[in-house]
Write a structure and sequence with these properties.
This protein is about 70% helix and about 0% strand. It is mainly alpha-helical. The longest helix has 14 residues. The protein is elongated and about 60 Å long.
Length: about 210
């Protein structure tokens, strides 16, 4: 009903369609309807760069990388300093195995928005897969400095440091994870980082303390 009222009041508003599309996507109600509203927003305002990024991300989620890339590039064309568009483009390059291009896109996103935590995380994962562990650690250290409340950045950094044998530094990272979210204290003891629930490693590391 809220959507219907918004459309009744502002049927030709690009931002109304943008907000409805975002809400539909968030609720997981209908991907097709969300795409239709994003496309309607673009039709009403072809300069609305955020609509291209959101539509690109939705296409990417659906596995349509070609359409996703097209929308990210259009957003960059409209707004050359759009960090989220570069970050999205980087993930597409990454999925395609285009490591060099992905790295360049992630670094551009970080340059444009030093608080874009997803760009740091994606870059660190790429570097880890490429065997550049020290560079990945450095990237995550920069992420925790720029976004000190990012649980995932502290956690990923802790896992890499532990893997490198830097246990005391890893301890500090996992302490920070729990400091940021006390619910991690409720995780079962003895969970290893490689099991898919790495935050639990904090408890394993400190079970004797």
């Amino acid at each position: 009903q809220a959507y219907e009222l918004a459309l009744a009041l502002h049927p030709d508003s690009a931002r109304t369609h943008l907000y409805i599309a975002s809400a539909l996507e968030g609720c997981g109600v209908s991907t097709a309807d969300a795409i239709a509203h994003y496309e309607k927003a673009i039709l009403l305002d072809p300069t609305l760069e955020s609509a291209y990024v959101y539509l690109g991300a939705l296409f990417q989620k659906c596995g349509d990388l070609e359409s996703a890339e097209k929308n990210y590039l259009k957003a960059i064309d409209l707004k050359p300093n759009y960090a989220l568009a570069f970050q999205g483009l980087g993930t597409i390059n990454d999925w395609r195995g285009e490591a060099k291009e992905a790295r360049e896109s992630y670094l551009k996103a970080i340059e444009l928005a030093p608080d874009c935590v997803d760009a740091y995380l994606c870059l660190a994962n790429l570097l880890k897969r490429e065997g550049e562990i020290l560079y990945a650690i450095d990237t995550l250290k920069k992420a925790t400095a720029e976004i000190p409340n990012s649980i995932q950045a502290h956690n990923e950094l802790g896992c890499l440091l532990k893997w490198q044998g830097a246990e005391e530094q890893a301890r500090e990272c996992f302490r920070k994870v729990v400091e940021l979210d006390q619910t991690y204290l409720e995780l079962p003891e003895g969970i290893d980082p490689d099991t898919g629930n790495p935050e639990g490693f904090w408890l394993k590391l400190h079970s004797s303390n």
